[in-house]
Design brief:
The chain has about 200 residues and is mostly helical. It has helices at about 5-40, 50-65, 70-80, 90-100, 105-120, 125-130, 140-150, 155-170, 175-180, 190-200. The protein contains ten helices and no strands.
């Protein structure tokens, strides 16, 4: 066999090898494209079309509950009030049903602590404020939990109130005693009122 024939046979073999490699590469490309098509064609789970107003009401509800320690009823009223957020009743209802916050007893306790620390209120005064429709609107159960958990020296609260009446209103000891223990006043127990008056100078 001549050198020319050998060269030609070698060249033919190389071309055949190149052709096989090209076919293999094309098959690989097709396989990748098929996989991509399958992935793209997969249906994504649909999400409910919730109106923006409803979602805004939900954000507001969560904020009031978490940052202002409000009761569930108070949050709901605030969302729809003409003096509050003015959301529609439907948006407010959606917000209240979908809130992640649900620790209303904790909010009642924090509110009770605030009334004691900043206003030196009596136990009954705090309870009434927590449950009042014109106050915090907590349930009786939530308010009772707060009162039972609250760590307060009500004698000292009564004394602080007595000093305020004496210093700002120049009231007599007996008038202060009556104001402290009155159901229309501070609602301290007679014992707490007596302690407070006995400590006045």
């Amino acid at each position: 066999m001549t050198e020319s024939s050998d060269a030609e046979e070698t060249e033919v073999a190389l071309k055949e090898d190149d052709a096989v490699e090209e076919d293999t590469a094309e098959e690989d490309t097709v396989a990748v494209e098929d996989t991509s098509t399958e992935e793209t064609g997969a249906e994504e789970p649909s999400t409910p079309d919730v109106p923006t107003e409803y979602l805004s009401a939900l954000d507001k509800a969560e904020s009031y509950a978490e940052t202002m320690n409000m009761s569930k009823a108070a949050v709901s009223n605030q969302l729809t009030s003409d003096y509050g957020e003015q959301f529609s009743n439907e948006a407010a209802a959606y917000a209240m049903e979908n809130m992640s916050f649900d620790n209303w007893k904790s909010n009642a306790l924090k509110s009770a602590e605030s009334y004691s620390e900043t206003m030196s209120m009596s136990k009954k005064g705090i309870y009434d404020q927590l449950t009042s429709d014109s106050g915090e609107k907590f349930t009786s159960e939530e308010a009772q939990y707060a009162i039972d958990t609250l760590d307060v020296d009500y004698n000292q609260n009564a004394l602080q109130k007595a000093k305020e009446y004496q210093e700002t209103m120049s009231m007599s000891p007996e008038a202060i005693r009556d104001q402290l223990s009155s159901d229309y006043g501070e609602k301290f127990t007679p014992e707490e009122a007596n302690f407070a008056v006995s400590q006045l100078k």
